[in-house]
Amino acid sequence: MNINIYYGGRGIIDDPTLFVINKMQEILEELRVNVTRYNLYEAKNAIPTLPQTLKNVDGIILATTVEWYGIGGYMQQFLDACWLFGDKGKIAEIYMCPVVMSTTYGEREAELNLSTAWEILGGLPCNGICGYIENTVTLEMNEQYIKIIEKKAENMYRSINQHIACFPASNQAVRQKIAVPKSNNLTPQETEQLSQYVSDDSYVQRQKQDIKELTSLFRDMLSEDEQDNEEEYLAPLKRVFKPQTGFRAEYSIDIEEKKKKLILSIDGALLECNYGACDRPDVELQMGKAVMEDIVNGRMTFQRAFMSGSMKAKGDFKLLRSLDQIFDFEGKPL
């Protein structure tokens, strides 16, 4: 039988969790169990690769200390790695005993969190150990406490040895129906390799640099597309322009799908049209791109678009009516 212990505390001398897992390891080894311990604070840079160590185990002990709140960052990182990179088929066969000692409060909530997390991962939780220990010496000198620890270790051994079944839990149903992460269709070998890459700081930095360069590249390409798009509608407007002597007006057309407004400045026979901003246009128009397409293709006029509610306008409505005379798209589609 193989059992791994994953310790998520900080490794301080008077940590009561260390005494508990040392005693459990002693009992399990007397029962001829191969016990391997992983101190997460020592392997913090390699935590994403630790789910690989679950391959050949029959059971695990997740041990942590509540120093102020929750199960601690190292243990949470390990559970996250199991969710992202662990072999769920193998985890479903592994028994887990939670061990949580508290020097403040919240040990029961932390034990429940560990059990719930393991159930969501698909594993088999065993009855664990949790308690409030103000002074580690009190734990070490109390024979009753030591008997409880020994009993829990023996019960875990029996559960694994006899393959005791567990009732289905709603947490597992949630994982199967709702909480399954987006699948990348990776094989267990590819997932293992990915976890190694994630734990490699140099690889992560290279990836970030590549993403930054790609982002810059696509931003430049997008800027070029937007620049090319700023020529849209200018040629057809100039082609159908019918100047009127003495006519002067400035129009601002806000096409919803475009960032900049189309500005039309008319002074007799002179027409200036471009995309930009205008402080005080005589007429402001607002429409969707589909409406503008209909107008330049002769299927709609500015006046009909306004009357039908497809286009909004404000300003000098006499100048609005003049638009269809100055830009006669009917009969001259784009």
Structure description:
It is a single chain. The chain is rod-shaped and about 110 Å long. The protein has 334 residues and is of the alpha/beta class. The mean pLDDT is 86. The chain starts with a strand and ends in an 8-residue tail after the last helix. Helix 1 (16-30) packs across helix 6 (143-161) and helix 4 crosses helix 7. The longest helix is centred in the middle third of the chain and has 29 residues, at 201-229. Helices cover 46% and strands 20% of the residues. Strands 1, 2, 3, 4, 5 and 6 form a six-stranded parallel sheet that branches. A five-stranded mixed sheet has the order 9-8-7-10-11. Helix 4 (107-121) links the parallel strand 4 and strand 5. It has helices spanning 16-30, 73-85, 88-91, 107-121, 136-141, 143-161, 170-177, 188-199, 201-229, 234-240, 289-296, 302-308, 317-326; strands at residues 2-7, 34-39, 59-66, 95-102, 124-125, 129-132, 248-255, 261-267, 270-276, 283-287, 311-315.
What is the helix fraction of residues, given as a range? 40-55%
Helix and strand sequence: EHEEHHEHEEHHHHHHEEEEHHEH
Task: Please outline the major beta sheet.
Answer: 6 strands, parallel
What global shape is seen?
Answer: rod-shaped
- Summing up helix and strand content along with how strands pair, one would put the structural category as alpha/beta
Q: What's the pLDDT, averaged over the residues? A: 86
How far apart, in Å, are the first and last alpha carbons? 79 Å
**Poorly predicted runs:** none
Rg, please?
A: 35 Å
